[in-house]
Amino acid sequence: MPRGAYWPGSVRRVPEEQLQAAGRRRPRGVYWLPNLLTTASLFCGFVSIVQGMNQRFDLAAMACFFALIFDSLDGRVARWTGTTSAFGEQYDSLSDMVSFGAAPALIMYEWALKGLGKFGWIAAFVYVAGAALRLARFNTNLGVVDKRFFQGLPSPAAAALVVGLIWTFTELQAMDLVSWRGSDLALLGWLITVYAGLTMVSNAPFYSFKTMNPRRRVSFMTAFAVMLGFGLVSLEPALVLFLFFLGYGVSGWLYALWLRSKRLPSPFARHDEPEL
């Protein structure tokens, strides 16, 4: 009788040589470096949620920004080292859902939306749903859409917009520079949360920075502007980062309006939406 085995649910005998070839093709283990960075991003997202539950909103916001840094590194490290994998892509999406989907919504709910009752948790859910749909659309559009632009606000930028608001006003209130009432903060938080959630699932084109070549020479003024940016962040990190992501959060809509005024097509005009 020829040596081999039966596939489960089949009566066809598979030769042993074919089984050995399939075993050689099966990936074993995972690449440790990019997935370590993804784990660090996931850990920061978890810490962000815990600190938000403990009413330490400044630490919660900072942990979310650290998650953003690790998330921006894992994909680049995987590409630079040739260690990209399907496992890493799925793991990164699950991590993003925690760090940039659930965490910002829960922190904002604890900070300002809880007093609004059902309108508060609905706003938080709009953000969570927007992040989930944004990540699902991003995964299905890989290699299809124009890589120069994101279709909708990316979830890390949306998270930075939401927690940046919390961090900024937490710092300003600690320094007695603002004395806003809770109702005012609740309204502002509600608007920012809903705006970020809806913009994530929009078709507005946001520049992705993926075409920037780190090996290309830049002008002296560009290098000076980068150093000036780092200096401003070091002076008032909460306010400067919030203003930066606020500007980025509206840049896609402004660019879409500019394209319409010039009667130019959107980068996603010929791209069909993924089926639900």
Give a short summary of the structure.
With 276 residues, the protein is mainly alpha-helical. It is built from 9 helices and 4 strands, in the order ββαααααβααβαα.
Question: How does this model look, in words?
Answer:
The protein is mainly alpha-helical. The chain has one domain (32-212, 230-261): CDP-alcohol phosphotransferase transmembrane (TM) domain (Four Helix Bundle (Hemerythrin (Met), subunit A)). Helix content is 68%, strand content 4%. It has 9 helices and 4 strands, in the order ββαααααβααβαα. The chain has helices spanning 16-25, 32-53, 57-81, 86-113, 118-140, 155-174, 182-200, 220-235, 237-261; strands at residues 4-6, 13-15, 149-151, 205-207. It has a two-stranded antiparallel ribbon. Strands 3-4 form a two-stranded antiparallel sheet. Strand 1 (4-6) and strand 2 (13-15) form a beta hairpin. The longest helix is centred in the middle third of the chain and has 28 residues, at 86-113. It is globular. The model is unreliable at 5-11 (pLDDT under 50).
CATH fold descriptor = Four Helix Bundle (Hemerythrin (Met), subunit A)
Strand content: under 5%
The CATH homologous superfamily:
CDP-alcohol phosphotransferase transmembrane (TM) domain
Q: Which structural class do you get from the secondary structure elements?
A: mainly alpha
Radius of gyration: 22 Å
Number of domains: 1
Give average pLDDT, whole number.
83
How far apart, in Å, are the first and last alpha carbons?
Answer: 49 Å
* Overall geometric form: globular
Number of DSSP E strands: 4
Question: Mind telling me which CATH architecture this is?
Answer: Up-down Bundle
* CATH C-level name: Mainly Alpha
Low-confidence stretches: 5-11
- Please work out how many helical segments DSSP would assign: 9
What is the string of SSEs from the N terminus onward?
EEHHHHHEHHEHH
The oligomeric status of these chains comes to single chain
Helix content: 55-70%
Strand order in the largest sheet: 1-2
Q: Which sheet architecture does the biggest sheet show?
A: 2 strands, antiparallel
